[in-house]
Every structure is written in C-alpha cells, then in structure tokens.
Amino acid sequence: MGKAGQAEPHARQHKPGKFWLALLCLAVLPFSTRADELAIKVAGLKDPLLTAVNISVDAHNITGNTALSESRLQRSAEQAEVEAALALRPYGYYEPEISSTLVPQGNGNWILELQVVAGPPIIVADASVSVIGPGAEVRELKRWKKDWPLKAGSVLDQSVWDAQKQSALDSAEAAGYLGAYFAKHSMEVNLELREARLDLQLQTGPQAVMGTIDFEQDVIQPGILELLPRFQPGQAYDSWLLETFRLDIWRTGYFKDVDVIEERRLEESPPVVNLVVRASARNRNTYQGSLGFGTDTDFRAQVLWTRHLLSQRGDSLEMGLGWQQRFNQYSFKTGYRLPRRVKAREFWIADLGVRKENQDFEVKANDDDPDFVKLTNGDVIDYSFKAGKLIVRDLSRGYQQLFESWYAQYVFEKSTFSLSDLNQQNNLDPDVSADLQQFRETDSSLALGVNWDWPVARGSGFGSTGHHSRAWIFTANKIWGSNREFTQAYLYSNWSKLLGRKWKLLLRGEVGYSDASTQDLQIDVDDLVLDLSVTDLPSLYRFKAGGSRSVRGYAFESLSNNGIGSNNIVTASAEIEWNFRPDWALATFYDVGNAFNDWGQTNLKHGAGVGVRWYSIAGPIRLDFAQALSYDGDPWRIHFTIGTPLL
Q: 296 and 268 share a domain?
C-alpha cells in the first residue's frame, strides 16, 4: 500500500504537460480555420430584371468565418437558381433558363455565376379596366383608365399592375371618394398559352364632404383661425385643400407644429370628414440675415426681424434693414398687420419705409448710344407711409388666392442734386439753371390706390410651373392734400410652363402708364446740345428698365429718361430652358423694352443671349451672356444673380 500510495502522485506529474499541449492546440486552432466566402454574380439580364434577381439572391451570399463544404455550395447554387426564377415571375417571365457555375477563387473563396435567359414572357391577351360609381367622371380617374399601360399585346408586369391599382385608389381619395375599392381585380395567367387576362373594376362609392373644424390651441383668440379655411362645411372633400389648410395655419407665423387630424365618418350619408387642429406656439421672434451678389446690385446685405405675435389678437410686426453696393442704397422697412374679424380673410395693414440712394443725373446725346453724359450727382431720400386693408380672395375653389390691397400712401421726398459744378463748367443760361433747380428740392404726395397680387406656383426646381401676376392703379390729387397730381396704372405677369420633361417655356411682360407732367429742356454741355425730359412723378414711382430681371444686355436700370426714371414702361421676354442634367439647365432668351416719358418715342431696346441655371436649395442661380442688339457693335454684358433681392 505504501508503494502504491507513492506511485499515484508520480502518475499525476505527466498530466500538466498534456494540459499545456491541449491549450496550445486550442490557441492555434482559430488561426488555422478557413474563412470561406461565396459571392454571386448574375449575367444575361438588364434592369429592371437584373436588379430584381440580384435582390432575391443576395441572401445567399456568404461572408464571415464559415467553412463551405461541397454539399453546402451545391445547395446554395440550387437555392439561388430557384430564387432567381421566382424573381422573374412578377415581370411576366415564367420559363427562364438558369445555369449556375461555381468558380474557385483560392483561399476557400468561391464565385457562383448565374447565367440567366429570361425566356418567352407572358403577354396580356385582354385587359378590362373600368371605373363605376359617382366618381367615374373624375378627371384623374378618366386619365388613369385612358393611360392604362398593360394593354393587349404588352408584357405582363405585376409591379405595374400593383402600382396602377394604388394610383387609382390615391386619385379617388384625393377627389373625396374615401371608400373606393376594387369590385373586380383578377389576373388569370395561362402558362401553356403564355397569356394573361386582366379584369379590374374600381367602385368609387359616394364622395365625402367637409365637416366641422375644432381648433385646439390657446395662442390666439377664437374667431381668427376660423377664417383661414379655403373650403366650407358641406364642400366636397379635397386632399390638396386639406394640406394647403395646414400650410396656411403654419404661414400665419403663430405656431411651431401644426397637426390637422381627420375624423372620417364614412358610414354617414354622405360621408363626412371632421377636422381637429392641434397647434403649439412658436418662438415669437425670428431673426434673419442674408448676403447676396448680382451684377444688378453688386454686393447686398439685409437683416430682418419679425415679431410673429404681438397679442392674442393675432397682430404681427416686421422690420428690415438693407444695403446694396450699387447706388449705395440703404433701405429700412417696417410693416404691421392685424386680422379683421369678418367673413372674408381681411387685415388692417400699415407700412413705413425709408430709402436713400445716390443717383447720377445723366443724359445721352443719342438714344442709341450706350454712353451717358453725366450732368450732376445727388442723393434721393424717400420717406413713405402706407395704410389700408388687405383682402385675401379665394379663386378656383381655393386652389389659387388673390391678394388685394386698398391703401393710402404718403411720400415725402428730398433730392440733393448739386448744380454748382455744372453751372461753373458750362455757364448755363439763367432760365435753364432755374429749371434745373427743381431737382434740388423737397416734395410730398398723397396717393390713393389698389394693388393686386396673384401668385400661382407648383413644383420645385426645374419642374416649377405657374404664373405670377401683379397690377395696381393709384392717383394723387391736390384736392386731398398732395403737392403733385398724377395717376399710374401697371400690369405685370410672368408664366412658366413645362414642354415635356426636359424643356420649359418662360414668358414675361409688363406695361406701365403714368399720367404725370413732364418738362422738356435743352442744355449745352461740352459743345453738345442735350435734350432732357423730366417727370413730376416722385422717384419712388418712376419706371426704369434694363438688367438681369428686365431687358438683358443693358446695364441695370439704365433704360429711362436721364437715368432717374420715367412715366411709362414696356418690356417683354421669351426664354426656353433645357434641363440637361438634374438641377441644371441651359437657356436662350430674347428681351425687348424701354422706360420713357413720351409714347411717341418708345425706342424699344432689344437684347438676346444664352445662359445657364443651377436650381439650388436656395433658389435658382442664373448666369446670362446677353447682347445689346440696339447699340452699335452689339456689345455683350454678363448678368449674374445669386441670393434674394433687397427688401
């Protein structure tokens, strides 16, 4: 026993060696394990079939620490063939020929090459598509039926079938047929004949109407938001008007978040959609600043402050300060708006503005000469106050809005043109010098008028279309305290229309007429006899043409009498844009126009050129190369605009 007892410890002395050997094997094992990979490549197809097959077989790609046996590789190849065949069926291909080849890449990696021949497709033999019910005459649904893509003779495509069904339901809902459904929707496929027969019938059901609106907010007094809807209770449901209603609430500036919740009661006759509006207050103050540059203005900058809510009455105040390098112009503007509690959307408005700019008083010896003769220089300061009423009118069942303003505007103007240098250099006749003295004076006017603004816009970027029209008429008379008497009428409109998917037509025109006195003078300067025609209109109301937004090819506001503005204006423009890549377009254009005092001497100027457009997030950035066709030598001018206009 003693010897045996001594032998047992001796035997255990060999076990620690075996333990360290086993531990060493375990440490080395991870480095000796193969990390096999299997990648699948598909050949023989084009999109959309290629993309569909790639997506379906993607799950059979193998990466990571996996030892791939021959049986597993074979099983993956068989499964990939099955998945590829199934992926082709929605596109009408039920009899593809698919072969697979496993190609070793070394280090345990493999490529599974799938060679696919789609085979003969299933052809639509007959397609019966109809719309029944009260909404059968809805324009979008009639167009959907007319443009049905899976006509007899076309290849069956399940994705198109599903998309068209959803499109019909979306169009029906947008028009208020919220309970629309497919009474028939069958697709019969005959694999032997390789043909399909389609039967689709949309039942629109009754059209829903708008119901009550419940506003859940405590930001402003009741009765103000109730005037915002562009629809009335009982009016047909319209999804576009509902989205516009939400945006109109947000545009008031009172709220940060706006939710318009629909409560659909489709069991009623007719179906009714009640609305619950939940809105939370926003920060009452907004501060904005911007920098810009353009060949019309050179550098410019502005800062804006808006007080969105002064009180629970819904009144708001905004102020802005701006500067532009051209004419060293400074601008200050403040505006106040207070909602009126009437059935229509109306506001009391008041605006106060100050503008100061440096002007050259100049004239041309020949109207077709691009060069001016500078007579003198001075500052013009305008102080204006406008008060009146703004009416928002709904047009086209609320799809468009017209903004109409009735107002009275007082303008105090001060001109500081210096005549001393001109007198000393040219020994002007005393009578002429006295006539010119009028340009160094103060004056005031009080005008009564009405203004219309009609913006209609759809889409964004190159795809934006619509029109923007403006018009006004106002008059000043000594009867109500104006120092000068004049009347002015003006009409402006621009239109943008897509011509297909790559082309766009832009048209613009304006005409303005002023019944205001003018003075015609002749002066001798540097042995030249110069004709001056100067209007009695305050500088704030005078017309000027030329520049990137007027007649291109001519300097900014260079087309007017004496460079200080005229009574009348006529301009027009036609432009074609070609969208050659996303967000980029090339343009060619032709402009014509002038600003003038005498309708018998319009002397319209012509310009033409080419340009490039970049539709950025901040808006279109435009670069134009324009030729002044009415000047000798047809000189060229570059027009570049980036950033927003001055106040």
A: no
CA distance 38 to 467: 58
What residues make up the domain containing 560? Answer: 285-642
Residue 75 inside a domain? The answer is: yes
Cis previous bond, 48, omega within 30: yes
Indicate the pLDDT class of residue 146, thresholds 50, 70 and 90: very high
403, 390 in Cβ contact below 8 A? yes
Strand spans (E) along 159-295: 181-190, 195-203, 209-216, 255-265, 272-281, 285-294
What CATH code is carried by the domain that includes residue 216?
A: 3.10.20.310
Segment 210-214 shows an average pLDDT of: 95
The share of the chain scoring above pLDDT 90, in percent, equals 59
Q: Are 622 and 512 members of one domain? A: yes
Residue 373's identity, in one-letter code, is: V
- Computed over its alpha carbons, how large is the radius of gyration of the chain? 38
Among 251, 281, 311, give the residue marking a domain's end: 281
Average pLDDT score over residue span 390-402 = 91
Residue 376 domain-assigned?
Answer: yes
Whether residue 309 sits in one domain with residue 260: no
Residues 301 and 261 occupy one common structural domain: no
User: How far, in Å, CA of 158 to CA of 385, rounded?
Assistant: 65
- Shared-domain flag, residues 533 and 562: yes
State the average pLDDT over residues 315-319: 96
- pLDDT for position 419: 59
Residue 433: pLDDT band with limits 50, 70, 90: low
Same structural domain for residues 109 and 129? no
Are 267 and 316 part of one and the same domain? Answer: no
405 and 527 assigned to the same domain: yes
DSSP structural state of residue 266: T
pLDDT of the residue at 147: 92
Q: Is 120 exposed, middle or buried (0-12, 13-18, 19+ CB in 10 A)?
A: exposed
* Spatial distance between the Cα atoms of 25 and 18, rounded to a whole number of angstroms: 11
Q: Count structural domains, the chain.
A: 4
Q: Is 522 within 8 Å of 530 (Cβ atoms)?
A: yes
Asked if 443 and 413 touch (Cβ cutoff 8 Å), the reply is yes
* All residues at 6 or more sequence positions from 221 whose CB lies less than 8 Å from its CB, including other chains: 312, 313, 314
Q: Which of 67-81, 230-244, 484-498, 557-571 has the lowest mean pLDDT?
A: 67-81
pTM over 0.85: no
Domain boundary residue among 281, 298, 314? 281
